[in-house]
Sequence to fold (253 residues):
Amino acid sequence: MTRIIIIIAITILLSSCENQKVKLLESQVAQLEDQLDHTQVSNTSLLDRLSDLSVINKTEAKSIQSSLESLGRQNEYIQNLTTKIHEKDSINFALVNNLKRSLVDIADEDIQVEVRGSAVYISIADQLLFQTASAQISRKANVILQKVAIVINDHDAVNVLVEGHTDNIPINNNKFKDNWDLSVQRATAVIRILQHEYNLDPARLTAGGRSHYMPRADNETESGRSKNRRTEIILTPKLDQFFELLEAPELVG
Fold:
């Protein structure tokens, strides 16, 4: 009887040990299954990423790299161009301020300094420069042109265009063929003074005549015609730097 009891006790003990082992194994299996699931998810993600990357072959990767480099060059070009534009604006600002200080003693209605577009315009009434129907520079004009020349010589990054303008009354003497001729000769007279008297580099100078075709006021009134009889000295920043940027070979394509 005792032996039977011992056997039963051993059987129960073994059964209990087996249950513990089974539970331990089941727990380990569950952990392994969790790890397997995680691994499968990771592998799926990796496969998806590899699939995406496989779409970009070597040629396309080079194309993308080339596009990025091109964008970088274009961005540099835009920054350079913006810098040059700011430099131009700074030059114009300095010119206007210096000219106005130099010409402060002259009446505003006789001489005007302003920025139009990308250039600085100095508009001088003909009564300050010439006698009526004449292209001979008056003595009092030298004071004005000297002041203008000093400012221009301090800014060698600008070119100078001198334009003559008339009213619409036809010229009536033997010295000039017409208003075109008068406007051009007045412009060249100013150019010669700037070059020979005040040492402006002639390579920076251009003379032009507009006749009466660019009026500032109504030619039907004496007041308007008086405003239209003028000489304009136009200061423009040299554009070589802009042309060089536009022709930059790295921007092609």
